[in-house]
Batch of 2 targets.
Target 1
Amino acid sequence: MGIDDIDRDLLEATIRRALARGGDFAEVFVEDRTSLGLKLEDSRVEDASGGHEIGAAVRLTSAERTYYAYTDEVDEPNLAVAAGIVAGALRGAAGAGPTIVRLGNVRSVTGKHPIFVPPETVTVRLKSELLRAGNEAARSVSDDVGQAIVGYSEARQRILIANSLGEFVHDDRTRLRLVASVIARRDGVMQTGFETLGKSMGFELLDEATAAEVGRRAAEKAVTMLAAKPSPVGPMPVVMGNGFGGTLFHEACGHGLEADSIAKGASIYAGRIGEVVASPIVNAFDDGSITNEWGSGTFDDEGVPTQLTVVIEGGRLRQFLYDRLRARQAGVAPTGNGRRQSFRHVPIPRMTTTCIGPGDSDPEEIIAATSRGFYAKSLAGGQVEPASGNFVFGVAEGYLIENGKVTTPLRGATLVGNGIDVLNNIDMIAGDFLVKSGMCGKDGQSVPVGTGQATLRIKEMTVGGTGS
Amino acid sequence: MFGVVDEVLRLARQRGARGAEVYAEQATSRRIKVYRQRVEELTAARRKGVGLRVFQSGAVGYAYASDLSAKSLEDLVDRALGNASVTDPDPHATLPEPQGPPPQVDVYDPLLERATDEQRIDLALRAEKAALDHDPRVKTVEDTIYADGDVEIFLANSAGVRGSYRENDCYAFAYVLAEQDGQVETGLSFTVGRNLDELDPEACGSEAAQRACDLLGARKVPSLKATVILDPFVSASFLGVLSSALTADAVQKGRSLFAGREGRQVAGGIVGLADDGIHPDGLSSAPFDGEGTPCRRTSLIEGGILQGFLYDTYTANKAGVGSTGNGVRGSYASLPGVRSTNLIVDGPATPIGDVIAGIEHGVLVTNAVGVRSGANPISGEFSVGINGLLIESGRLAGGVREVTLASDIISMLRNIVALGDDARWIPNGSVLTPSLVIEGISIGGA
């Protein structure tokens, strides 16, 4: 049975079956996903892989407990089995839940993230030409470019969500992404450079010129870093670049604002709404509704409309990021942050596009105001322990700042610190706001996210590395 | 599932595939999370799907589907052939040939199938309770998870490779937060087996709690060059990064720091490292890999000298050698790629207490944050944040925090001077390793 064959009666019956032995919320999530991935390495298009998966999950919650069953055979008998599993797991729960479920009209909002050229209407051949364009551009940057990996991925995900509140939502999401990873080599030194372009858009996002740009930028980073010296270590002022620099806020603070960490007291931000957690120039928000952005959707994966949520305003903590379950526990409205990787995953609170808002300095002014420091132009990725707020980031592209000027490229540096300390130490923010796309992993689930940030300065932060 | 596999092979041949390989799986799994001695989440799952790889004179195309209806399978074949038409042919991309009978590997325990949800929940509750009761400074157990999986693999290709096996395993995991004077530290532990009786939830819970409590009171230290001990958890995460550089894929594509170093000293003279796809206790053991090649043990480093690399069919063809059975697949949705199976470090063991007693200034590292992001598998350079315990005059002397450990993989391997007697399996990446004792590492402090 395909997603278009699922009717209202089947969804209503499944929800009723799930609630047969009690519970306070039941939901059916049906997903149809087609995807295509192409990869070029060694100047060869070597992998071309496409998939089509369909499946459904039945979720039942009772107070703080969640029961979840999924199947990749979406038909009446298998949905009945899944509903029976979650209902059966609830043994011993007091009282039966609502037995009559009437779904409202399906909500299907189109046009919020317009797709002009559906990728499935474009030949795989044309897509493979993008990889070659990215590869040639990367290799033309320098003879030191030794290897280029260029990847293209597209996915179309159609979902139906129906729940015991009578809500019935349909969403249709298309995402495209191009990534380039380049290795440059000189005198036994190897360095890598990475660049990406991803949006919730159709094929209008990409052409050979944009693909070439992605390849060229990755190559330039790798080649620049060949001349890098070992980074000095120790505490110093750090200027974070725009775009990828937003990974800092995502890792160091964003995860601690997700309501599952808050509910378990496993976040330094728990119980601190209204308190000062950042310097007064910091305004931060999560926004899953930005048009065509990589981390955007019309609804989240629980059928809640996405929204702009201000999390920090003028340095004060304003709001956490909620899914339905944690919102209900906390007695607040969900914020459209209930996300899941697929029907095979329980929705949990997740960021969408998370940003520190722009300020009124300019990037050159920030560098000029720094007599000696570290310029982290792009970050490789990082990890954080939300419980303590301690984090570490790899720096993909870093430079020394001397006498108000960006000088020597630096390699092997990491940034180490604590989320709240860093937020409190932000003393300048520029206006060159930029969003970059990435994938974020949590609890074994990977979802598309964006990080948005302008160039900003942290008064003092620990830089780790191999130098002295 | 062989019915589906054979039907896809037939359709592929009928529609013009020269060589075809079909990989199908069906699986069931359970995952239970408990919190404060109650079930927080229970997930029951059934999964199945099929993947088709076609070979058209060296051009390879792949497609997969979870829908096994006749129409979906026809579509699958068309998409695989369509994808093959855009890849660049390479004469080394050939259909794997039959390699004789696979080894006998016992990776299925029928006992696990009889486990009830009550037993599974009880096991998770015991792990959480052990953590909560271990020390009054334990604030909460953020995650206590029990999970198991049962998967059947079916593989056949048009050159005559054909096989199937069933594998199952189960594990429990606890992630503990401990607090003292406003400082929060975390600790985790696992217990792994093929049936519930093999798991030790109490040991898992109390070890996770102990690892968190050990770090309480941690202080910043100045930068120093010191001897460090990476405990098995930390060693395993470094070995995970290292293993990608030991694949022939990385070597042939110019992104391995081990390229051209075969026969040369790359690690301390006591260090042995092997990939063992048929180890009886290995979670990644199987009779054959994702291409049907029999799994086996492959020596990578012996006496500190690099012995060779890991191969799948393609990289083996290119190098003119045989596949080592390392064409690994994540699931039916992924192409096989060269990856390690179970990584095993061996060599002469020194009691870990003796090692600590012999160190004047050092750090016992129990947690490394950012190994994935902070270690560059291509250049080998890394710089990661660590937590651990200071060693002074042969004794453990309290926790350290906000320090970084920086070096490069080859220097680190060469400076391994001892291996602990505490070897254990770390499920994340399936690594069997003791503590690694390394001299002269830069520690960046405050």
Note: The first helix of chain B runs from residue 2 to 14.
Target 2
Amino acid sequence: MKLAKLVKTLFPAQDVVEAHCDGPCGVYDPSSARIAAEAALSMTKKLLALSHPEHDDVQASIEYHNSFSRYVAIKEEQAHLAKTEVLVLWTDYFKPVHLEKYPDLHTLVWETTKLCSTVKQHVDLDAANQLMANIEKIHNIFWATKGRDIEWFVAS
Amino acid sequence: MLADPLPESNVIEMLLWILRLRRRVRVSGASMIPTLAANDEVLVNTRAYEDRLPEPGEIVVAHRPDRPQVILIKRVAAVQPDGRILLQGDNPAASTDSLDFGPVAPEYLVGKVTSRFA
């Protein structure tokens, strides 16, 4: 209606009603945890596949130590990132109503973050695979709370 | 989630507004997208809930129970058997609503949003 548009332009309503959200508004997705955990798993596999070079081959030895250090550094970083991403979902996204429906959520998150630590501390393929399995569970719960059916997938 | 669009004000709505039977308010924030965007204006019937409870799907204006000085616009998701109302934004990714502050007692309701002032 033309009159309404004119009134709105000339005299905007002074009473404001809030359609707000408290925080920096939520774009959450367990994919970020999955990508980090997957990178840590990949580094674990690469570390286990590394073979020690002959002692007298200096160049190969340098390459070996360089790769070894890089894999460890990336594994440390990505395992820690996976932990952070899971904790952000836990503290910022999940709400009491979700917990009522998924009472094991606290335990699942706790075990998942502990697995992140294990993956970080050791070169443990079982722990890295278990971490991925746990993040898949979190993925399934997360998307179920949003009423969406998002298929689990991995990049590698 | 019911997300029926909100009708634009027709002649009757405009007349009720002129007769001061509708209150005009401006929306701030993004939690009612796609139904309402920031700076949209709506008309509110402040007498709508004098003798009845809201129904699921209706858009209402209400005081936020944990911070009553804040006035919210949200959609009614459900009415509990105890008469308290669950409010939800149409844009749940960007909405602080009953998921955060719980059900809202009917005393907190200001009125029913009847049309978009446009």
Note: Residues 15 and 62 of chain B are 24 Å apart (CA to CA).
